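To close the chapter, one final illustration. This time we ask the reader to focus less on the individual chains and more on the assembly as a whole: which components sit near each other, and how the overall shape emerges from the parts.
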Amino acid sequence: MSAIENVSRRRFIAGGVVATGALVLGVRYYPKLSSRDKLPHDTNADHATLHPSVYLGIDPDGTVWIVASRSEMGTTSRTTLPLVVADELDADWKRVRIEQAIGDKRYGDQNTDGSHSIRSYYDAMRDAGATARFMLIQAAAQEWGVPAAECETDLHVVVHRSTNRKAGYGELTKAAAKLPVPKTEELKLKPKSAWRYIGKGEVSCDLEGLVTGKAIYGMDSRANGMVYASVERPPVLGGKVKSYDDREALKVAGVRQIVPIDPFQAAPGFQPLGGIAVIADNTWAAFQGRKKLNISWDNGVNESYNSDQYKTELRETSHSPCKVVRNIGDTDAVFAKAGEKVHEADYYVPLLAHAAMEPLVALAEFKDGKATLWAPTQNPQAAQDIVSKELGIPKEDVICNVTLLGGGFGRKSKPDYVAEAAVLSKKTGRPVKAVWTREDDIKFDYYNAVASMYMKAALGPHGKPTAWLQRSVFPPIPSIFDVNAVYGDPGHLQQGWTDIPYDLPNLRVENGPAKAHVRIGWLRSVANIYHAFAIQCFTDELARAAGRDPLDYLLDLIGTPRTIDFTGVQYPNYGASMAAYPWETGRLRHVTEMVAEKSAWGKRKHGKGTGVGIAAHRSFLTYVATVVEVEVNDQGEVRIPRVDTVLDAGLVVNPEATRAQFEGAAVFGTSVVRSGEITATKGAINQSNFQDYPVARITEVPYQTNVHIVESNAPPAGVGEPGVPPFVAALCNAIFAATGKRVRDLPISKLGLS
Amino acid sequence: MVQLKVNGAEQSFNGEPEMPLLWYLRDILGLTGSKFGCGVGLCGACTVHVNGQATRSCVTLMRDTAGKEVTTIEGLEKNGLHPVQKAWMQINVPQCGYCQVGQIMQAAAFLNTKKKPTDHEIDDAMSGNICRCGTYQRIRAAIKAAAEEMA
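The assembled structure is written out below.
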C-alpha cells in the first residue's frame, strides 16, 4: 500500500539534525490511498488521482493540491514552500490549492522555528514537484508513443514540440498514476533559467482573508457545544494552590464550573502551569468569574527571585573566569602586559516577552478517548506529544489542527497552552477554548533570557585588539527541561558568541552559570540579540577609543575573506553542515561594504543630535549588515528616520516576503531597544499589558527601512530572525553617535537621553 | 435588553450590559473578524465603527451601544473590497495579519474625515494600533494609496 522512504537525501540532512531536532522524513504513498483509516487525517492531496508525495496531489480537473506542513505566522512560508513545488512542477499558480497539514510525523519536522522552513524543505519541495512532473511527462510520452526525453513541460501542460502535441496535467493524471514513482536520481530539476516563481515570489495565499477578517486564527476557532475557559495560574513559577474559594466566581452570570489544574512536575517543559480554571458560556464571563476567585498560593522556591538582585549576580559571575567555550592564543598573557591600553565594558539585556498580537489560545475536544485540537501552534507535533502525556492517550489519538497564527515569534512553539485546553476538555467533557488574556500572555511567557556580557580587549597599533575576552552569563533554555541546567548549550552559544567572526590573534570566549527562576525560551533571534548587542556595540566603543571610523574599524576586525575554523569548538551551525553552509567572513564583509554604500556612509552630513550606527552579524546562516540613522532631540526623544539593511541569505525564494521580514525585524528590534524589559519581584512578573510592556508604535519605529538583498546562488538560509540582532546594535551605536551616550543596558528608557 | 444595529441588521442583546461589545460580536454573533489583543483599549486590534467612529470594542460596554450602528470588518463594504482593503492588498501590508482588521477599520474611519493626510497625521491617527510584526511603513504607504483612490 505505501512505501516509506527517506525523501531527504540531500544537503540539508548532511549535517545531521537541525537545532530544533528536525528529521526530514517523508512517506510516499503510491498508488493513491485506499484506506482512510491509515491516517489520522487525510488531505485532498492524499486522495488526488496522482499523489506521488505527501506534499502534493493532482486531480483530473487539473487542480494541484499542495500541503503546507509548516505553520503560517506571518513569514509567508505557507505560500513560499508550495511555490517551490509549483515551480518545479511547472504548475499554474492560479490552479494550486494550498492545504494546511495537521501535526503528523510523515511531514518530517514541523516546528516552524529557527528560520529554517525554506532551508530545510527547499529540496523536498523541489523533489515533490519534479517527481510529479516526471510522471506526467512519462504518461504523455507513452500515450503519444514518443520518447519521454523529447517531451517537456510548459505551464500546466506536457508538450511534444516536433509533433505539436500538448496535454494538460489534469488529463494525464490517470495514466501517470499507474506509473512507478521515480527514484530521486532519475529526477531532473529545472535549470535556474526556467524558474517561474523561485526568486520572484508571490504574495501570501491568505492575503484577501487577512484584509477581510475571514482568515481563521486560533482565537477564531469554534466547535459545537464549546465552552470558554480562563485560568488563574500560580504567579510564581512552580507555585501551587494552597486553597481556594470559588463561591463568588460561580455566581457570575455565564460561569458554569470551576476546575482545578494540577501543577506541573518539574521541570516545566511544555506542561500546563496549573491553577484554577473558570469555565463559562463566553470569554467575557470566564474573565469575570476569574476575577472573583479567591486563591491562596504556595509560591515555592522561586519566590526568592528579584530581577535587580539577579542582574547584580549575573554581572558578578561575569567578572570572574567562567567556562571556556572557544580559545585562540593566550589572552591572559596579553592582558598582563597591556597596562592602560585595556578597554572593558558590561552589557546587559533583560528578559523579553514575545507579545504576539494574538494572545495564547487553544481549542480542544476530548471525546471517546481521543483528542482533537485547533491551535495556533508553531509546533503541532510537540502539541501532540504533550497532550498525549497529559491525557494518557497515544500520540496517534491526538489530532492537532493548525490554524493561522496571530504572530508567534517562538512562543507558539511551546504548547503548554494547548495542553491546558486539552486537560480542561477532559475534565469538563466538552470542547474547551482556553483563552489567555494579554496579562496572562505576558506574565506566563517563556522569556528570552536575561543576559549579562563582560567584554575586555587589549588594544594594539591603530586600536586593533591584540587580545579579546568575552563572557556571557544567562539562564539557559535547557532549564525548562532540566532545572539544574545553568550553562548555555552549544545551540545557543553558537548564536553570535562562539562564532565571533573577527580575525584576532588571542581570543577567549566564555560562558558562566545562571539558574533560571522563570521559564526561558527562544524568542525571535534568541541569544543573537544579546550577543550581537555586546559584540557589535563593544566594537563601536573600541573604534571610538581608537579615534577611527566605525565602519573602517569593523571591516578591519572582520579581516580578509576566510572560512572560520571551528576545530575544537562545539559549533552546531544551526543544524546545517559546515560543508554546505561554511562561516564565510567574506560574505559578512560584503554585506558590510554594501550597506555602507547603500546608506552613503560617511557621505551624508549629520547635524547636532543626529548620527548613524553600523553593525554586522550572521545568524541562522544569513549574513546581515545594518546602518541606522537617528535623531535625538533635547528632550531625549529618539527618532529613527532611516534604516538600510543588506542581507545575504543565499538563494531567496520570495524576495517580497523577505523584505517584509527585515522591515519587521527593524520594528521588533526597536521594541527591544526602546522598552523591552520584563522584571520579577518575589518571583512574580511585574509587567502585565502594553502599558508596562510597550511594543513599538507607528510613531516610534524607523520611518523608512530599505532592504537590499544580495544576489546569491548559495543554498537558502534564514530570513525571519536574522534582521533583529544587527539592527539592535546599530541603533544603539547610532544613539552614541548622536548623543555621546553609550548604551550598555537595555532598554534605553532607563538611560536618560535628555 | 440592548437594541443596536450590527452591519445594518437589527440585533437585541439580553445578556450582561457590562459585557464589552467585542465579546458580543465574537462569541455571540460569531463575527470573529474583530480581534482580541489586549482587552484594555491599548492595541486597537478590536477596532470597529460605532456610528462611523473608530472605536475600541474591547472597552465599549454593551449598554453603551443601545441605539447605535456598529460596523465591523464583515460589514465595511457591501460590494467587494473597500479602497482601504484594496490598498492593503496592493501594498502587501499584512504579515501575520491579526492586527490588520483593526488597522483597516481605524484607517477607513480616519480617511472619512481626512482626504489628503500628511505622514504626521497618519502616524497620529494610527498610533493606537499596534502591529507586532512591524508592518507600519507599509500601513502608511497603503493609507496614502487609499487616500488617492478615495479622492
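Chain B has two domains: 2-74, 83-150. Chain B is about 35% helix and 15% strand. With these observations in hand, you are ready for the problems at the end of the chapter.
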